[in-house]
Amino acid sequence: MEEKESERLKKKPWFWSLAFASVIFRLILILFPNNLNLASRPEVSTPLTSLRRLAEGYWLKQASMSPYAGSMFHGSPLLLSILGPLTVKRFEGQPSHILCSLVSVIADFVTAMFIRLTGLNLQRAYNQSLKSLGLFRLLENSEIVSCGDIAALVYLWSPFTIISCVGLSTSPIENLVVMLCLYGACTRQVPLAAFGWVVATHLSLYPAILIVPVTLLLGYGPDTPPRKLLLQRNSCKFGDAQSSDSSFQDKELTNQPVQPIFFSWKPVVYFFLWALMWALYVLVLCGISVKDYGGLREMFNR
Amino acid sequence: MALPRWMIFLLLFLLCFVSKSVEEKEEHEEQEEFSEELLLRPLPDRKVLAHFHFQSRVPPTETYGRHHHLFPKPAIYQLVHKFRIREMELSFTQGRWSYERWGGYDPISSNNAKPPGVELWAAFDVPKHQVDASWKNLSHALSGLFCSSINFLESSTAYSAPDGGFRSSTGNMRYGTLPREAVCTENLTPWLKLLPCRDKAGLSALMDRPSIYRGYYHSQRLHLTSTEFDSTGLKTGIVLEQTLTVVLKPNAPGNNMGYSSGSILQPSWSLSSLFGKKVGGKCLLANSSSVYIQLEGALFSELNNIQKENERYNNDDLALKGSWSSPGFELSVSPDRMIKELNSLHEDGPSVLYEFLMENYSDSKLFELGFTWKFPVVWSCPRAPLHSSRFLMGSGNERGAIALSLISTKQSEAFQIADINGERCSLQVDVFQVVPWYVKVYYHTLQVFVDEQPQSVPDVIKKMHVSPSEDKVSPGVMEVVLNLPCGVKSAALTIEFDKGFLHIDEYPPDANQGFDIPSAVISFPEFQASLNFLEDASSNRSPLLSKLKERSPVLSYTEILLVPLTTPDFSMPYNVITITCTVFALYFGSLLNVLRRRVGEEERLLKSKAAKKNGRLPLLLSKLSAKLRGRPWEPPQSSSSSSSSSSSSSLISYKLLIKIVLVAGVAAVPPPSMPPFTDPMPFMTSTKLHRGDLGFPVDCLLHSSMSNRQRQDDDKWQHDLYKDDEPQVSNRRIGTKDLRFKLQKKSIQKAIQSGIGNVSGVRDLREKLSGTIYSQSGNTDPPKPKPKPVLEGSKRARTSAITSRASINAHIDAPEPETKRVASSAESVDSFLQSLGLEKYSITFQAEEVDMTALLHMTDGDLKALGVPMALNFSSLFPPKIRAIYHGKKSHTSTTSIINQQKYSLHYPVVPFPVSFLFCDPPLQKCMTFSNGAISMANMVAVIAISSDYLSNRRHVQWQL
């Protein structure tokens, strides 16, 4: 499968060229930001995601004050300690936001890569299910459009993501964490999914509802073959028994059908345990970072 | 008052003057002290600074007690004790002190130059958690005391707690300003009331309101220092210092003689020209009272130079009698003393004070100080090392930046040179800036420019204390200690901000004017403004001089900034309301118009054609036949009616007939929720009732309405139509009419007396007759659109509708039929009453000489006055026409509930039949009120009439249709 994919990649250099083009486009926009003045648009950088407010919060923290004093900063203290130093550092002759913009460009690119990997993963699962059905010909003949590539390109070239990347907002990082969560769920890497979910929920509350799809993904596996397909396969098992190449295939066919239908509780339980652990970890980190300035309570107040 | 009395007592009875003075002095050691002083200083820009200084001191309570002679006990003493004030300063200022021209480096400018509006700061001697509460109470108390809106400082968004940046304050201090407060005489009057002599005697008598408020700058200040609560240290009691600083422009009486130097002679002035008043001695309660004229160092040295130059020309400018001459100017009164400044820091030279003691003057010997210049002099005031100004940058309603620029003055260079002796050459500048919360400052964007070069913040800023603003809770405070290099030419601080949004009720009335950012306070702690005057024994006594001697940091206030914020715009809801109303009006208006206008035209067309072509013969024939039958004309089926109408007027178009039938059909099965807008006539329904429903002959009952109908001038067509036959009918029936009418009324009256009230008797009668239970069904039934029974080809219903309209419209103006009617019924009121069963009241009516004419015009009130019981609802007993007049007299619209339902007997041209209608049913109130507007739009009288009889007898109507 990997070989095939790499071949496909070679066949499609357009993906990479487009991806890099989008990155270069972002960089160009970053280098000429004065005309756009996107950072001040409330549509782009909300009070929650504004990097300017984050810088203010960092400054207040450096001035040994609570970063939440003055009702300017409402974000996470983790973000403050990660991005904060970048807001202060400035190159010679360059505006101070360059570094942060670079961070968001990188975050965007990584997010796109995760989207692509998720897409590949899902495709692989689809192929597997096709294979398990014995539809090899279908697999070989049909030129399956790589959904991951397209999704990644859509993400990279979406004007909203471009604007929020250029407009000094922390939303690329939030996107990255959300994508991390989904990727972990698709690849059944429970700790990664839990981490992504916890951090995304911490940064902005609304990804909390991702718990539903993530649980389903973990429970049913990346690509649940529809029940009908399985029934169909079972029915055609008799007819195709002779035509199938090997007995091993047959065995697999006979053994497999029951498995994916059932919801597997194990990864879900693991996920919740991991999520609990990560949440505790994040809270402890936050507590340490805001310990001197009123503690966690103030963080929750904001 | 106690003191002079006491003095008089001494004078009269002890008669020992020497001992008195000694005693007085001794007593004053431990007594309250009050002193008044006035300092006058010519300013370089041809103005004069007048600085009143009143100080009263009370010894500490422990040693002195609580009884006061001079000190304003209720106002200040209690204030101090209640709120445990350690120090407090309140200033009302109008105008802006010009630091360049009026000086920025002397005690007066440092202490008395205040930001426009109200500034209040106070330090309390209470535990920290009570400071805010004390501040709030104090602001309220002062607000009442000084007739101003200081109570706005109560809200936590209005005051701040400076931490070292302002007057080296401690944590117990609060500071608040109201930049937009207007200062007026009503603030000055309570301030003057704190003085023992008010403005009646002494120096305060100079305070002529117009001349004070005409000045360029006016600052009235109250400073309070109390050591009452100090556990340690010297106890001086409470010191109340009241100052009034005014900058006035003397009226130059045309002495602008050009001199060779090209400069213009400064205007000469005198106390009376400045204030319009003269001083008649001191305030008797004052310990010391004196007037000073201060010449600044620069001026004095300039004058000395001039003197040296001019010595050879005018070696002796002999003084006039009573006047006193100095090198460059002349005083009309010779000063008692001249005090020279000691070891001045200014390189300009020492400044000079001329003192005039007010003790030497009295009412008979007024003190009139005149100051006349001899030579044109140009000098400049001592200025602060850096001139500060503040401005806004950026545009738009979203964000901006505050910039504070400090530009070095010439003098500061000299200071720096002097300062170099120190180990480190730097110039310390303290900036104290309060920003309201809706200006959200990004403190990390603070940038410092020194000599127009951006500097890294930590290099320049030695110390920075920030308390960021919290939305709707507290203002932002920034206290910065700048350490600028010595040779600095200019320095600038910029800081960016976002503009916040206020809640709609937080906007001031004039929101579009903008919002004020209070002045920043810039102080130079390394520079002390003080004037060390030559000590002598008596100068110790002058509080003003000791105040001038006090070392205080040079302080200056910046401009007030005006920030435009987004203001709420109420045009949107207004537009919505307007558009909605317009749509409603257009929709319903046009709907009504269409429904009404078209049908009316059709009718007119119909009528004219019928009248022209066919004449009235068929009509008359049908009427006649109906009459002959002696029964109400029973309308045929709708098909037959259409056919009959078509037969009667063959020229009526087929289309029109279909329309009429259609509308009639729609009306016969009316939609339940539709208000009766389909009625072509002015919302008046007329229904023919089956004659059997009323158990008596009603054909003649309608006779009175016949005569009503005659008066319809506005409805010409109807008038034309019935002009001919009506008189005959009325003439014929005139004899029987009244009787029958009365009969009917009798039955109605019975119904009324049975407690049904407004519900007219006819309905109840019919109810009884029909045996059905009538339970106000008219109220619950949805209004039925009245089709045109009216139209149905023949014109009879129309006539009734018009008649009813005539009776309802209060514009009935025809006296002629009325008189006719009166004549016919003029036999007596008695018979009328008799017919009503009210014979017992006939005597009353006779006594009041009420004839039938007068009866018609009587209202309920009149009848009540006659003693007729109102339970009878007498007015409803009147015939319809009378009713119409009656209601027209009262009001046009509000009587609808009274005439809830009224039975009218309308004369039908051929067959008389009862028509009942009402003005408006309770469920119709809505459409009534609504159609009021609509009809008035259509220039009609607002009337809705719908017959609840019709509603209850729909069967008949359908049948009729």
UniProtKB/TrEMBL annotation, chain A:
Which GO BP terms apply?
attachment of GPI anchor to protein; GPI anchor biosynthetic process
- Could you list this entry's UniProt keywords, alphabetically sorted: Endoplasmic reticulum, GPI-anchor biosynthesis, Membrane, Transmembrane, Transmembrane helix
Kindly list the GO CC terms recorded for this protein: GPI-anchor transamidase complex
Q: What Pfam families does this protein map onto? A: PIG-U (PF06728)
Question: What is the membrane topology noted in the UniProt record heading this document?
Answer: Multi-pass membrane protein
Q: Does the keyword field hold Transmembrane helix?
A: yes
Q: What is its main location?
A: endoplasmic reticulum
Q: What is this protein called?
A: GPI transamidase subunit PIG-U
Automatic annotation (TrEMBL), chain B:
Query: What Pfam families does the record tag this protein with?
Result: Gpi16, SAM_1
What is one GO biological process annotated to this record?
attachment of GPI anchor to protein
Q: What's an example GO cellular component term for this entry?
A: GPI-anchor transamidase complex
The segment(s) forming the SAM domain are 824-868
Positions of the region Disordered? 773-795
Q: What keywords is this UniProt entry annotated with?
A: Signal
Q: Which residues form the signal peptide?
A: 1-21
InterPro entries in the cross-refs: PIG-T, SAM, SAM/pointed_sf
The protein here is known as: GPI transamidase component Gpi16 subunit family protein
Upper classification of the organism: Eukaryota, Viridiplantae, Streptophyta, Embryophyta, Tracheophyta
